[in-house]
Design goal:
The complex is a heterodimer. Helices cover 72% and strands 0% of the residues of chain A. Chain A is mainly alpha-helical. Chain A has 2 domains: 166 residues, no CATH class; 59 residues, no CATH class. Chain B has a single domain, classed as Sandwich (Immunoglobulin-like). Classes of the chains: A mainly alpha, B alpha+beta. Chains A and B meet through helix 10 and helix 13 of A and helix 1, strand 3, strand 5 and strand 6 of B.
């Protein structure tokens, strides 16, 4: 039990690290810091957001567990169960807090809505890995997944599940329209170079992360971006150019 | 020999983005005069937004501190962050130009992102000169 508890120790360090990031980096944490209640409400009312958050947390714990000596390798379905349980629990808990403690109007505590949201958050926390894999594969950066989540070979003792996941990524790629530019990475390289910035690994990762909301626009079957999203591309790159010194 | 081939391959891969960056035919310019930026399109064809999206136009991002748009710019632009304005300019036919004016503040940088019918989905990026 203490061994399991120790896994979560890094998360005490996480808020500390985050404050350091906020102070030292160009990352814009202001929406969360300026409006924590709004952020909590957004997490409560948007199971997708919460599910992805829980997924990220569980994936980090899992990766840490696998790096231990000796590594803790649990059945992947146990991890999925943990992700689901944490997703449901945090969704319900957040909702209760938002309604009862923060007295936020417009958020309902009706049992059906609460459970449905919790279920959705749990499901998304479980399928987060495959979703992320598909997105990163589409971005042409499947190598990032290995960096983010660890090697898939350690994922399963049975092996079948991993193979199924690997097989789905190329399929989703094949369904995409042929792009003039190849992928979002190429677009980012193009914009970065145009702005006089060399496309280093760090910049690519940073810009790709900042431009993740663009994915649905590119996946809608039309490779043109909307004016709003094109402005977002310009903004992210120009912010990088000024080094967040504004 | 094998090493030479590998080096060549790496070099070719590294140069691929550069080939894309070269926009040899791009003649549109983005110039700055005081607190205004002007996007000029001398051709060869119109500078547009996403043709399949109604009301879309050329994206123009202007960065600066304490910028206040004039009446026309206020119609095209909205503040995206405290230091940047995101504008959607109406399509620019050949030979036209659009001017975005600010009445106060410090203008730091600007860039435009549009498409041309002749280039399809290839992005047309115009940086401030």
């Amino acid at each position: 039990m203490t061994r399991v508890l120790r896994l979560f120790v890094p998360f005490l360090a996480l808020p500390l690290a985050l404050t350091g990031v906020a102070a030292a980096q160009a990352f814009d944490l202001s929406p969360i810091l300026a409006d924590p209640i709004g952020w909590a409400v957004a997490m409560t009312t948007n199971p997708l957001l919460l599910g992805l958050f829980v997924f990220g947390v569980v994936a980090t714990v899992k990766r840490d567990a696998e790096r231990r000596k000796p590594p803790i390798t649990w059945n992947p379905w146990l991890w999925r169960g943990i992700a689901f349980a944490v997703g449901v629990a945090s969704s319900v808990l957040l909702r209760v807090i938002v309604v009862r403690v923060l007295n936020r109007a417009g958020v309902s505590l009706e049992i059906g809505v609460t459970l449905l949201n919790g279920f959705a958050a749990g499901v998304i926390a479980v399928i987060g890995r495959d979703g992320l894999k598909t997105t990163l594969g589409w971005l042409g950066r499947s190598d990032l997944l290995t960096q983010l989540l660890g090697r898939p070979s350690t994922d399963t003792a049975t092996g079948t599940e991993t193979e199924a996941v690997v097989a789905t990524a190329p399929q989703s790629l094949a369904g995409l329209p042929a792009m003039d530019l190849g992928s979002l990475t190429d677009l980012i390289v193009l914009v970065l170079t145009g702005a006089g910035l060399s496309p280093t690994q760090e910049r690519l990762v940073r810009v790709t992360a900042a431009l993740a909301p663009l994915a649905p626009d590119l996946l809608d079957g039309d490779v043109h971006l909307s004016a709003e999203n094109r402005n977002r591309v310009l903004r992210v790159v120009m912010d990088l150019k000024t080094g967040g010194t504004l | 020999m094998r090493r030479l081939l590998a080096a060549l391959l790496v070099l070719l891969t590294a140069c691929a983005p550069l080939v894309q960056v070269a926009q040899p035919a791009e003649r549109a310019t983005l110039t700055r005069t005081g607190l205004s930026v002007t996007l000029t399109n001398p051709g060869p064809d119109a500078l547009t937004g996403d043709p399949s999206r109604a009301g879309d136009g050329v994206a123009l991002t202007v960065q600066g501190i304490g910028l206040v748009p004039d009446a026309q710019a206020a119609q095209w632009c909205r503040a995206a962050t405290s230091t940047s304005w995101a504008c959607t300019l109406p399509d620019l036919p050949v030979g036209s130009s659009r001017r975005v004016m600010f009445t106060a503040g410090t203008l730091l940088d600007a860039a435009a992102f549009g498409y041309r019918p002749s280039l399809g989905a290839r992005p047309v990026l115009i940086w401030l000169q």
